[in-house]
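Need tokens for this chain, all 94 residues.
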Amino acid sequence: MTEKKIPVLTDIVGMPGEPPPATPPLVVTADELAGLQARIATEGYALMERLLHESLREMEANLFADVIGRLRTELPDLIDDLLQEHFGPGTGRR
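Here are the structure tokens for all 94 residues:
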């Protein structure tokens, strides 16, 4: 990597009323730009993948909790209905 002079605050701030000193234009080679674009794309995709995985885990946990809740609510009634159907009224829950 090439050394580049990075301006600091004292380089830019001058005396009151003075025009700010001209900063040299930033020179970026095509290879540096291509490398930067590739890195931004790679990091962006990695972030998207991580966020999607987290979202899927949260959705899975919510669905699991919903299904377990419905099973706890509906299974006793299902068992009661099947017992009454098989053995006749008066069996099952009391």
